[in-house]
Structures are given as structure tokens and as C-alpha cells.
Amino acid sequence: MLESSERAAADREARLQLLAEARRQYQTGAVADAWETCSRIAELSRLAEDPSTLADAATVIRTMTNSAVTGRVHALCVEALALLGDADPVREARVRAQLVATSSPFVLDQEHLAPLAEVDDVEASFLRLQAQHAELQGVRHIGDQLKIADAAIELGRRTGVDEYTCWGRRWRMDAYAALGSRLDLVAELNAITPLVERMNNPAWQSFLILVNASQRLMDGRFAESRSLSEEASRVGGQDSDAAYLRAMYTWEIAALTGDDLDAVEPLVRRVVDDMPFMARGWLCLVLMARGKRDETAMLWKAIAPHVRRLPERAIEWLIATVGNAEVCAWLGDTETAPTIYDQLLPYAGLQSIGLAAGPYGGPVALALGRLAFVMGKVDQARLHLVSALKSCEELHALPHLALTHAELAKIDGLQVRAGRKHAEVALQIAQRLGMRPLGTELRSLLATISDSEPRLTAREREIAELVAAGLSNAAIAARMTLSERTVENHVSHILRKLGGNSRASVAAWYASQQARL
Predict the structure, then answer these.
(1) What string of DSSP letters covers 467-505?
(2) CB-based contacts of 492: which residues, under 8 Å, 6+ apart?
(3) Is residue 354 part of a domain?
(4) Taking burial as the number of CB atoms within 10 A of a residue's CB, which of 23, 194, 343, 392 is the most buried?
């Protein structure tokens, strides 16, 4: 009997040592190794019928963007809660909070997410804040997110735990990024830096590097941003958030500069294969950047009917919806445009960014301007774009300042002095920053101001007028009793003659023609 008790004590000590090793691995950025160790602890805990160490294993890894690991942690939490029962209120509170924090916004069956009880335990209190933050992740809850961040900072101050304070400041930075409060974000960055240095944790170090990469990208310092995102990935390790975010930086920089777009497509394909289906909207953007109109349109047809299915609680909701708006406008999808416009309108004053450590995607107002133009609401489009222009100027967001000037040039028309001025300013910024795709498009548009106007046939002019009115190819075909394929061919010929690459450029050309009459 004594020998059996001693063996049980030795086994439990072994599990506790593995727990210490899992925590060490996680703190050093070896997330995959930490998860493997937690899985081993769970196996041994099942054999020993010890729910306490299994529950402890479920709370080692904090929430992160690696959805595969987060999903496994979530499943372990479900098992731990079933085994714990009511015998250990503190561990139950910790695991239940971790369960909520790791729940996927893409999974509809979340009935087990019961209200969280408060217990007299510091770790449970922090995990409860993480769970509340996860539940209120959507952009409509930014005010609540700031309150939760304040509570985490206060908890860190009272307990002397730097990690709690760091999470609070991190959540503040995420909120300030979406609000476009760059001064406040940088102030938080300066405040969190000495804490991260003291913790000497690779995951937090890589986070700081990525925040700086995001700031450089906003300035249009593409080479520096790329270098910092690569450094963050090395520091954080291959299983870190930084490794995932590096793919996003690689894409964003390639889209703006035109560099390495061929290599980006297979990279994004690999990433989205392991993500929810709606992530294929990202792939649409890549195909669009490469000029693959037919392939983009085919994939978009599988996404467009479901744009409202993307949950607002997802970190990537705003980024993905703004990306959908860009694809929708480029394809001239007048049927889906009103839906996405209505989704984004409540957030017209926000910025397209999910995390302070993620790449900046411009003002939401820029996406709304593009959609309004496609919908034929020219005056509304101009108001959104003027708002986006002001936002970019205040943020010193130079790449998107150029993009916004370019959109205004299309709306005003290059035959009008204001339109030409917008195009010239956009071209100047694009050339200075090395934004080759935008520079090429603008030079092509400015060339159309010459005395030799594009020679459209009578039929092409008629179709151009209908495109400018916001009609889809199918609607034009029905009105003119043509096949949709014939209309598609006419639109392609019109785009080639005008030197444009979107239906918006046809609308801009037509508006400039009308202004001259």
C-alpha cells in the first residue's frame, strides 16, 4: 500500500515537472513543443485519473492567432471541465475562462460558454479578462476593450506581474490602431517596451518588432517593414503569431510595391488552405493584384453570397470585409456592393487593421468610397474619399494617401483640373515610395488626357455609359439583348482602349466626357 502511494506521488511529481517544462517552452516561444508537452501531461493525467494537472495543462498556452493550436487547447478545456466537476472552483474558473478565450468565432455551437464566475485567484482573474476580451473582440466593442485593458493593467500593477500589464497595454494598442489614434498607440509602445525587455520573452519581443513593422508600413517604408517582419518571425519562432503575420506583411508589401507577387500567390494559397473558407477572399485580392480577372471572378462567386457569414467577433473581420470591398469594386459587382457597404458604414471612421502588430490596410472610408462609386453614388463616394484623405494625412499613412488621391482622380475625371491634381499628387507619392502598380496605372490614366482621345465604337460608348451607370454585365446584356459573353468582350476592349483596369476607370472616363459637353 505504501509502495503504491509513493509511486502515485512520484508520478504526480513527474507531471508537475512536465508542467514546469511546458510553461518554460511557451515562455521561450516554442509553442508547438509546449503543446506536445501539454498533450503528454494530459495523457498521464488521464491514466492517473488526476483532473487537476490536466486542467493546469489546458491553461499553459495563452490565446494566439495560431488557430490550430488554439483549437486543440479549447478541446482540452472541454475535457478538463468534464473531469473537474465541482470539486475545484479555482481550477474550474481558470479553465472555463480559457475555454471562452479559445473559442472560435467561426463555430456556431457555443452553448457551453456559460457566464464566468469570479473567484479569489489572481490567475483566474486574468484569464477571466482574456475571456471577456475575446468575447468582445469585434470592432463595435472597442470601448469595452479599452475598459478590459485598463483592468488588466491595474491587475498587473497590484500583483507585480508584468505579463498582465503587457496584455493590457497590448489590448489598448489594438484598439488605438483601429481608432486611428497613432499618438496614443506609440505612447503605449514606449510604455510596454521596458516591461518586455524585463520579461525577456521571445513572443513578446517579436510582438514589439511587429508593431514597429506596422508603423513603418504605414509610413511607406516598405524595405524596413519587410525586414522587421522577418526579424520578428525569427525571434518568435516558427510556431509564433509572428510567423503567421509575416505572410500578411509579405502580401501587403507585395501588393503595394509589385515586388514578388509571383511568389506571394502560392504562399497565400498554403495559408488559406488551413483557414475558414471565407479566408479565400484574401486569395481573391492576390489574384486581383496579378490581373487574373477571370479567376478572381470565379472565386468571388463562391464568396460573395456569404459575405454576411463572416463573424464580426473574428479579429480579421474588418480587414477581410475591407478586402471584400476592394475585390467587389474591382469586379464591378453591383449586386454585392450594397451589402458590403451596409456592413462597413457603421465603422466609417475606423482603420482597416486587426492588431497593432498587423499590417495597416487603410481607412474604412476608402473602401466605402470605392463601393459607393461602383453603386453609382458619386457624391457619396466623394464624401467618403475626402474623409479618407483627411484620415491618411493625420496618420501620415502615405501609401493609402496615394491610393485615396488616385480614387478621387477617377471620380472627378482627369479632364477636370481637380481630377488631374489628385492624379499628379498620387503619382508623385507612388513614385517616391516605390509603388509601381499604382504608378503604372496613374501614368496610363494621365496619358489619356492627350489630344488623341480613345476611339470607342458607338456600341462601346453605349456599353461604357451603362457601365458608368453601375449596371452589371448581365444587366447590360439583358438591356441590349446581347449575350453576357459579348458584353464581357466589349468591356475588356473598352478597358484596354482607356488604359484602365477596373469598371471604376470606365465610369471616371465617362464622367470626364460628360463634363466636357
Answers:
(1) HHTT--HHHHHHHHT--HHHHHHHHHHHHHHHT-SSHHH
(2) none
(3) yes
(4) 392
Same domain flag for 324 and 437: yes
Give the Cβ contact number of residue 426 at 10 Å.
26
Cell numbers given for 310: 463572416
Q: Is 136 helix (H, G, I), strand (E, B) or coil?
A: coil
Backbone angles phi, psi at 104, to 5 degrees: -85, 130
CA gap 413, 95 in Å, rounded:
59
Q: Say what the pLDDT of residue 494 is.
A: 87
- Structural domain total, the chain: 2
pLDDT winner (highest mean) among 94-108, 448-462, 497-511: 94-108
* pLDDT per position as a tens digit, 105-137: 887 555 445 567 677 899 999 999 999 999 898
Residue 366, SS3? helix
Q: What is the residue range of 107's domain?
A: 1-119
The torsion defined by the Cα of 285, 207, 435 and 468, in degrees rounded to 10, comes to 40
Q: Does residue 466 lie in a domain region?
A: no
Last residue of some domain: 455, 476, 495?
455
Q: Is 114 in the same domain as 224?
A: no
In a domain, 461, yes or no: no
Q: Are 198 and 208 contacting, i.e. CB atoms less than 8 angstroms apart?
A: no
Label each residue of 398-452 as H, E or C.
HHHHHHHHHHHHHHHCCCCHHHHHHHHHHHHHHHHHCCHHHHHHHHHHHHCCCCC
Distances, alpha carbon 388 to alpha carbons 154, 339, 351, in Å? 36, 20, 10
Supply the CATH number for residue 419's domain: 1.25.40
Looking at the structure, do residues 267 and 405 belong to the same domain, yes or no?
Answer: yes
Same structural domain for residues 376 and 264? yes
Question: What's the rounded Cα separation, in Å, for the pair 17 and 2?
Answer: 23
181: left (phi over 0), alpha (psi -120 to 50) or beta: beta
pLDDT in tens, 329-352: 999 999 999 999 999 999 999 999
224 and 113 together in one domain: no
**Mean pLDDT value of segment 387-394:** 98
Cβ atoms of 335 and 472 closer than 8 Å = yes
Query: Of how many residues is the chain composed?
Result: 517
CA dist 332 and 376 (Å) reads: 11
* H-only helix segments in 332-414: 337-344, 364-374, 378-395, 398-412
Domain boundary among 455, 484, 501: 455
Asked if residue 5 is part of any domain, the answer here is yes
Contact 235, 448 (CB under 8 A): no
* pTM for this prediction: 0.84
DSSP 285-305: HHHHHTT-HHHHHHHHHHHGG
- Among 63-67, 133-137, 366-370, top mean pLDDT goes to 366-370
